[in-house]
From TrEMBL:
Lineage summary: Eukaryota, Metazoa, Chordata, Craniata, Vertebrata
Protein's UniProt name: palmitoyl-CoA hydrolase
Alphabetical UniProt keywords: Cytoplasm, Hydrolase, Lipid metabolism, Repeat, Serine esterase
Stored InterPro entries: Cytosol_ACT, HOTDOG_ACOT, HotDog_dom_sf, Thioestr_dom
UniProt superkingdom: Eukaryota
Catalytic-site annotation from UniProt: 17, 211
GO biological process, alphabetically ordered: lipid metabolic process
The protein's enzyme class: hydrolase
Location (main, coarse): cytoplasm
UniProt GO MF annotations: carboxylic ester hydrolase activity; fatty acyl-CoA hydrolase activity
Organism: Danio rerio (Zebrafish)
């Protein structure tokens, strides 16, 4: 039973920004494609209903090094844990300079999938178990499963309000470096090329759109070249069907000296089944950094807060920033 998979692709100009850095959304989309393929293959190794692995959650993903046009991305995926109804896939991304032969790890990600029946999209199939190299590995996987399950429930309780986009004439009247000055929205009609065999949006397509909006917010705040530094857990609360109009909205929540956190929502509006109403489908936090022309970090302008809600979101973002910083330092010490 194969529990590993790898895909490779050369990075083209349309994968990158104006200075040649590959978009974080492009990398996230490749990560999800690899995860979906290995998850779907594994869940169809048993008899019974055929199924497709649907993305439920992406854990925090750090962008360790930038990737550039002309480099080859090698995306390797491995199934590391299975519960009764979900699959954990760990993905590594390696960038190869095919001229010099130099290689570097750019991303490490953990994704969770649930297998959905091709005959009935509301039916979740049982997952075939995998064999673990040791009882300790199985126990560690079980702890990760319980932790992400709890975090998903907590995130689902959060009901952020709908974010309205600000038109250009209005934006020019807003004070620079405020939340309202940079907040942005993107509207997208879900077509067949965006969807799985079920007619629901690929998780990778959604993440790419989210990264685009977060990037616009960051660029409007800094007025410089910006790149994705990390993505906090992305939670997929509800499926998005073909024919829906989705609104992807982002707003700045926190800035440190060299980074900025952007909260992104995806709201789906079913045009054909309008009686079902608009609903919140996906939520996440993206972290960006500002770069100069030599790709060196620049200071980020401080966020100007207006009102108690913005102050509350800023403090929550600061807590996440400090927690992630402490975790990075602890991981660094363990590796030494």
């Amino acid at each position: 039973m194969a529990s590993q998979y790898e895909l490779s692709r050369i990075m083209r100009p349309d994968d990158a920004n104006i200075v040649g850095n590959v978009h974080g959304g492009t990398i996230l989309k490749m990560i999800e494609e690899a995860g979906c393929i290995i998850g779907t293959r594994h869940c169809n190794t048993q008899s019974g209903d055929r199924c497709l692995a649907a993305l439920a959650r992406v854990e925090r993903t750090d962008f360790l090094h930038p990737m550039f046009i002309g480099e080859v991305a090698h995306v390797s995926a491995e199934i590391t844990y299975t519960s009764k109804h979900s699959v954990e896939v760990q993905v590594n991304v390696l960038a190869e300079n095919i001229v010099t032969g130099a290689k570097k790890v750019t991303n490490k990600a953990t994704l969770w999938y649930v297998p959905i029946s091709l005959q009935n999209v509301d039916k979740i199939i049982e997952v075939p178990p995998i064999e673990y190299s040791s009882p300790e590995r199985e126990e560690a996987g079980k702890k990760r499963y319980e932790a992400q399950k709890l975090e998903r429930l907590e995130d689902k309780v959060r009901n952020g309000e709908i974010i309205m986009s600000v038109s250009l004439p209005d934006r020019q009247t807003k004070e620079p470096f405020t939340v309202v000055c940079s907040q942005s929205s993107l509207i997208h009609l879900v077509g067949p090329s965006d969807c799985t065999l079920h007619g629901f949006v690929h998780g990778g397509v959604t993440m790419k759109l989210m990264d685009e909006v977060a990037g616009i917010v960051a660029a409007r705040h800094c007025k410089t070249n910006i790149v994705t530094a990390s993505v906090d857990a992305i939670n997929f609360h509800r499926k998005i069907k073909k024919g829906c109009v989705i609104t992807v909205s982002g707003r700045m929540t926190f800035t440190s000296n060299k980074s900025m956190e952007i909260e992104v929502f995806v709201d789906a509006d079913p045009l054909v089944e309008a009686e079902k109403g608009k609903y919140r489908a996906v939520t996440a936090f993206f972290t960006y950094i500002s770069l100069d022309k030599e790709n060196k970090p620049l200071p980020v302008p401080p966020l100007k807060l207006e009102g108690e809600e913005e102050q509350k979101r800023f403090e929550e973002g600061k807590a996440r920033y400090l927690q992630n910083k402490a975790k990075r330092l602890a991981d660094k010490e363990r590796q030494q």
